[in-house]
Amino acid sequence: MKRIFTFLLICTMFLSLVASSYAVDNNQQENELIIENTEELIEVIELSLKDAINYALEHNKDLTIQDLNIKKAEVSYENNIRIVKNYNRNKDLIDSLPTPADELVQQKLLELGATERSLDLSLNIAKWNKQIKENEIKYNVEKAYYDLLLAEEQMEIAKESLELAQDQYEKGKTMYEVGTISSQQLLEMELAVSQAQSGYDAAEMGYEMQKMSFNNTLGLPLDQKVVLTDEIEYKEHEEINLEKSIKEALENNGSLKVAKENYELAQLTLEATKARYPEITYKYREQEILVEQAAKSLDMAKNGVEMGVRSAYLQLITAEKQIKTYEKTVEKAQRALELAEISFELGQSTSTEVSQARLQLMDAKNNLAKQIHAYNMALLDFHYSTGLGKTQISTGY
Q1: Rounded Cα gap, residues 290 and 302, in angstroms
Q2: Where in the cell is it found (predicted)?
Q3: Which residues contact 49 (CB under 8 A, 6 or more apart)?
Q4: What is the tally of structural domains in the chain?
Q5: Does the pLDDT at position 92 exceed 70?
Q6: What is the domain range of residue 89?
Q7: Phi and psi for 40 in degrees, rounded to 5?
Q8: H helices of 90-113, where?
Q9: Among 2, 113, 121, 378, whose Cα sits 20 to 30 Å from the Cα of 160?
C-alpha cells in the first residue's frame, strides 16, 4: 500500500511539472507572438526629400513659437505706433508748442521718422525669424536625408564586400580540394570573410544610428521604419554667375538688412541728440561711438555675407571636380579586382592580393559616395548663402 501511494505521488508531481512546463512554453509563445505583432504594427513610411521637408514643417513646434513671437511683436507694434500716428496727425500743433527739454530728443526722433522705422524693424525681425526658422528646418532635413542616404549606400557597399569575400572563399574551398591552393591561403580567405562581416555589421549599426537621427530631425518616433525614395546621385547644377549671386545675397540676407537699418537709425539718433546735447557733451559723444560701432557691424556683416557666398562656391566647384576623379578610381579598382581574381584562379597571385583588390574597390566606392554627398551639401550651402539665411536674428539691437 505504501509503495502504491509513493507511485501515485510521483505521478502527480510529474504531471504538475509537465503542466507547468507547458504553461511556460505557451506564455513564451504568446509573448513572442505579441512582439512579432507589435513589430508588424510599425508601418513603414516612404519619403521623398520633398515629403520629408513638408512633414518636418508641419510638425515642428518651433514654427508655432515663431507665430506667437510674431503676434507678440504685432501687439507691441500696435501699442507703440499710436504715438507715431498721434504725432503725425497733430504735427503742426505739437511743433508750435514749447517742448520740454527732456522730450526734445524723442520728438526729433518722431520728426525724422526714426521711431516708426524702429517699430517697423522690430516687427520685420519677428517675421524674418520665422522664415529663417523655416530655412533652418529645411536645411537640417535635407542634410539628415543626405546623411541617411550616405549611410544606406555605405551599408550596401559593405554588403557587396561581404558577398564578394564569401564568393571568393567558396571558390577557394573548391581550389583547395583540387590542391591548387594551400590551407594557409584558404584560412586567409576565411579571415577575409570574417573581416568583411565585421565591416558590414559596423555599417549596419551606423545606418541604424543615422536613421534615429533622421527620425529625430523630422519629429518621427525614433524606431519608425522609413524608406527613402530619392537616391544619392550627382546632378549638375545650373551655371553660376558668382558676382550676381553675391549681389543677390547682399540684398536678401536678413542679418545684413538689420545691420544696415541699425546703422541708419544710429545716424538719425545722433541727429536727434543734437536737438538737446551739444557736440562737447558726454551724451553726444556716446551716440557718436554708437554710430561708428553700427558702421563697423555693417561692414562686418557685408564681408561675412560675401565671404559666405564665395567660400560656398569654392567648395561646390572643388567637390564637383573631385567627383570625376573618384569615378575613375572606382573604374580602375574594379578592373584591378577582376584581374586579381583571374590571376588567382590561374595560380599567378595569392588570396591576399585578391582581398586587397576587393578592399581597394570598396574604399573607392565609399570615397565616391562620400564625395557625392559632399557635393550635394556644398550645393545646399551655396543655395542658402544667397537667401535670407538660416541663423536667427538677435532682437537685442
Answers
A1: 18
A2: Cell outer membrane
A3: 141, 142, 145, 230
A4: 1
A5: yes
A6: 46-385
A7: -70, -25
A8: 91-96, 104-112
A9: 378
The CATH number for 117's domain is: 1.20.1600.10
Exposed/middle/buried for 140, CB within 10 Å: 0-12, 13-18, 19+?
A: middle
Task: Read off the pLDDT of residues 162-205 as tens digits, 9 standing for 90 and up.
Answer: 999 999 999 999 999 988 899 999 999 999 999 999 999 999 99
Question: Which positions ≥6 away from 55 have C-beta within 8 Å?
Answer: 47, 218, 219, 220
Reference 157, options 190, 191, 202; nearest CA is 202
Whether residue 132 contacts residue 389, with contact meaning beta carbons closer than 8 Å, is answered with yes
DSSP assignment of 345-379: HTTSS-HHHHHHHHHHHHHHHHHHHHHHHHHHHHH
Q: Which stretches within 47-113 are classed as H helix? A: 49-59, 61-89, 91-96, 104-112
The model's pLDDT over 350-359, given as tens digits with 9 standing for 90+, comes to: 899 999 999 9
Kindly state the DSSP code that residue 231 receives in the 8-state scheme: -
Q: Which residues contact 379 (CB under 8 A, 6 or more apart)?
A: 237, 316
* Residues 374, 377, 381: CA angle, nearest 5 degrees: 135
